[in-house]
Amino acid sequence: MAGTRGFTGRGRSADPRLPPGQHDTGSGWPVLTAEVTPSVDLSRWTMTVDGLVGRLASWTWDELRALPTTTWSGDIHCVTTWSKLGTSFRGVSVDVLLEAAGPGPGAAFVLATSTTGYTTNLPLADLTGGRAWVVWEHEGRPLPVEHGGPVRLLVPHLYFWKSAKWVTRLTVLDRDEPGFWERNGYHDRGDPWLEQRYQGD
Amino acid sequence: MTGTSASAGPAGPAGSGSLTAPTSWATGVVREVRHHAGGAVVLRLAVDGMGPRLPGQHVVVRLRADDGYTASRSYSVASDPADPLVELYVERLVDGEVSGYLGDVVEVGDELEVRGPVGGWFVWDGVRPALAVGGGSGVVPLVSMLRHAGSTGHPDRVCLVAAARTLERLPYADELVGGCQVVALSQERSPAGREPGRLVAADLEPLLRTGQQVFVCGSSAFAEHASRLVVDLGVPAADVRVERFGPSG
Ligand SMILES: Cc1cc2nc3c(=O)[nH]c(=O)nc-3n(C[C@H](O)[C@H](O)[C@H](O)COP(=O)(O)OP(=O)(O)OC[C@H]3O[C@@H](n4cnc5c(N)ncnc54)[C@H](O)[C@@H]3O)c2cc1C
Asked: Residues of the signal sequence (chain A) (predicted)?
């Protein structure tokens, strides 16, 4: 396709960590949320895995933090075209949570739900094998509420709307059920390296 | 997103919940260019084959350099869905890659790659009474709602509260008069006599109605501040939809 008249663009980043169409936001971390930031009461907070599972599994805030933790370091990519490179989070692998619940036969998708009612859908395969976490620390500090604290999902190999803020529930399903942004035109999987931004990409 | 670093939003589908997915890229031909104070620009585009729009939606604009490098950004649509042209109001940011190009280089007759309309959450259904609160360029999608209310014969269905530093920096200031429009300027007295100062609860309180849908749009910092004011005034969080523009926060 022909170029846009007179557009040269800012310096190309040769950084191989940047997926197509993304730019480096540096030390910034934009906040993009579709609603009022909630206040979460940790004394009544629970994390639950339900749906197509052998047994419903649930953790209080203290129980969650007693699970074996992992620190993940790497890059995150927002569909609005910024990427944040070389950042880190700490929490528990989703593998640990799913293992406790035991996904049943036919389990293939997960719908993540937040305290606010926000939902996002993911193939089960994207949440397993050490590629997804439930996290409460960012770069050594408690995860700020505007970034999904106390606890958010972290699925860094997909666009960041999949990493549901304020997550409290993972529901295992045998079929794909579009979440909030997915019903509103965004892609069901959201692989930044394939630029799966919108439905049809 | 509607954008979205891991955006959150309530589960309820927007309106009917039936959203046209943004399809492929289309060509937008620039039909009008109007420059404003501070480098802001209004662009009016004829986009071939764009489907029906809803007030509050945005489009994605993609610029392409000769070597294939591209940069895309989201811009809210200011025009009424009944307007055949897609109108954008772009605030020019210092060093802004895309806003700089749109503000400085674009001329009538240029072609831009456009995709959309995008978004099914931050949209007004045209019926439910709405309080729209915008800061700076966050006023843009709300102006589409206001224009839609006017063109459908129900101007009183949308009350728009617009905040900016100065009147000159306020997008569409000339349309934000009369009705239940409020202009809150932080650095100067507003035309209606409001003293300078940031947006406060007293600016919003007289416009609250039960059953109202609230739309808040602007920078992250503005959206956080304004949505907090609205919720503290007793509006259920579930009735508040927020759109945060880009990293300026
Ligand atoms: C849903 C949605 C709707 C929107 N609607 C509108 C609208 O109606 N009108 C409007 O004006 N905007 C709107 N925006 C914002 C818009 O999409 C862009 O973010 C904005 O125009 C800035 O893009 P840019 O390319 O000019 O700036 P960018 O080049 O992305 O830069 C943004 C700022 O960050 C700084 N910056 C960026 N990258 C770097 C870097 N590598 N190093 C140092 N500094 C850097 C720049 O100096 C600049 O100040 C909307 C955003 C969203 C998500």
From this structure: none
ipTM score of complex: 0.79
Please name the residue of chain B whose CA is at the shortest distance from the CA of residue A163. B6
List of E strands, chain B: 26-35, 41-47, 58-64, 70-76, 86-90, 111-118, 130-135, 158-164, 182-185, 213-218, 240-244
Taking CA atoms only, the protein residue closest to ligand 1 atom 10 is B90
The mean pLDDT value for B126-146 works out to 97
**Residue pair A163/A76 in contact by the 8 Å Cβ criterion:** yes
The rounded distance, in Å, linking the Cα atoms of B225 and B161 is: 14
Nearest to B26 by CA among B54, B70, B62: B62
The tens digit of pLDDT for each residue in B54-111 reads 999 999 999 999 988 888 899 999 999 999 999 999 999 888 899 999 999 999 999 9
Residue B75 burial class via C-beta count within 10 angstroms: exposed 0-12, middle 13-18, buried 19 and up:
buried
Cα B115 to Cα A172, B76, B163, B164: the distances in Å are 34, 12, 29, 29
Atom 19 of ligand 1, residue of closest alpha carbon: B246
Query: Which of B4, B21, B246 is opposite residue A200, by nearest beta carbon?
Result: B21
B172 lines ligand 1 (CB under 6 A): no
Q: How far is A84 from A75, CA to CA, in rounded Å?
A: 6
Q: Judge if the beta carbon of residue B75 lies within 6 A of ligand 1.
A: yes
Are B7 and A117 a contacting pair at CB < 8 A?
Answer: no
Looking at residue B246, its pLDDT comes to: 61
Question: In this model, does residue B212 exceed pLDDT 50?
Answer: yes
Return the number of other C-beta atoms located less than 10 Å from residue B107's C-beta.
9
Q: Is A131 exposed, middle or buried (0-12, 13-18, 19+ CB in 10 A)?
A: middle
Average pLDDT over residues A48-76: 97
CA of B185 to the centre of ligand 1 (A): 23
Confidence of residue B1 (pLDDT cuts 50, 70, 90): very low
Condensed to tens digits (0 to 9), the pLDDT of residues B39-57 reads 899 999 999 988 899 999 9
Q: Is the CB of B111 less than 8 angstroms away from the CB of A38?
A: no
From CA B107, how far away is CA B104, in angstroms rounded?
9
* DSSP label at residue B107: -
pTM recorded for the entire structure: 0.82
Q: How far is C-alpha A128 from the chain's CA centre?
A: 13
Ligand 1 binding pocket includes B243 (Cβ within 6 Å): yes
pLDDT score at B14: 35
Hey, of B2, B4, B29, which one would you mutate to test binding to chain A, going by the most A CBs within 10 A of its CB? B4
Find tokens 């966050």 and name the residue.
B138
The single-letter code of the amino acid at A117 is G
